């Protein structure tokens, strides 16, 4: 089977990656090997579409370190580090966004992939944020990189990712949602108008 045919069968766009991008994926993403196209399809359906249907209101309790005793303008709201995480997908992979909150501003905004990441890596690209009253709004952008081998044919694929999150430091509640690229592009255009 030729790679072109494999991409078509898996529903992936034709390869548009540069040699440097392919080398980066090869170096930073341990490959995952599939014995059949059906196995690869199942994996891609879970990884590409699974974030859209995941639990979108999960604040990672292990990573939240809010110091409620500190005095701030927003008293009794907390300060510290926050990690917002997409819900558990069937392949146990999560997209996360994290940041620090000092009572009025946020800093160190980042995003990362966690859980079962064989065959997939993630690169954080950019972020935007604002604080409105007791609500922190954060948007992060990154890229999921895939290194797949199906029946001996290598397939490299990149998917742009946007996560949109909110967090209330007074109640400790919040969530993050995966925003499909087409939907997020529409929202960005609408926001600019």
Describe the structure.
The chain is of the alpha+beta class and 193 residues long. The chain has helices at 3-10, 19-28, 37-49, 181-192; strands at residues 32-34, 65-66, 80-85, 93-101, 106-115, 120-132, 135-150, 153-168, 173-179. The strands form 2 sheets. Strands 1, 6, 7, 8 and 9 form a 5-stranded mixed sheet that branches. Strands 2-3-4-5 form a 4-stranded antiparallel sheet, with no helix packed on it. Strand 7 (135-150) and strand 8 form a beta hairpin. 27% of the residues are buried.
What secondary-structure arrangement, pairings included, does this model have?
Blueprint: H1 3-10, H2 19-28, E1 32-34, H3 37-49, E2 65-66, E3 80-85, E4 93-101, E5 106-115, E6 120-132, E7 135-150, E8 153-168, E9 173-179, H4 181-192
Parallel strand pairs: 1-7
Antiparallel strand pairs: 2-3, 3-4, 4-5, 6-7, 7-8, 8-9
């Amino acid at each position: 089977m030729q790679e072109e045919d494999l991409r078509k069968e898996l529903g992936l766009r034709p390869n548009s990656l540069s040699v440097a991008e392919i080398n980066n994926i090869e170096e930073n993403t341990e490959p995952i090997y599939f014995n059949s196209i059906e196995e690869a399809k199942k994996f891609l359906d879970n990884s590409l579409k699974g974030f859209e249907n995941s639990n979108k209101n999960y604040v990672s309790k292990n990573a939240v370190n809010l110091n409620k005793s500190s005095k701030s303008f927003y008293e009794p709201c907390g300060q510290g580090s926050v990690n917002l995480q997409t819900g558990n997908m069937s392949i146990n992979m999560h997209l996360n966004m994290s940041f620090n909150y000092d009572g009025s501003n946020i800093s160190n905004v980042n995003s990362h992939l966690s859980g079962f990441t064989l065959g997939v890596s993630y690169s954080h690209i950019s972020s935007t944020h604002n604080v409105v009253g007791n609500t922190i709004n954060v948007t992060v952008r990154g890229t999921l990189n895939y290194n797949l081998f199906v029946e001996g044919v290598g397939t490299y694929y990149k998917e742009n990712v946007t996560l949109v999150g909110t967090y209330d430091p007074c109640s400790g509640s919040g969530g993050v949602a995966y925003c499909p690229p087409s939907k997020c592009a529409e929202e960005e255009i609408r926001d600019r108008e």
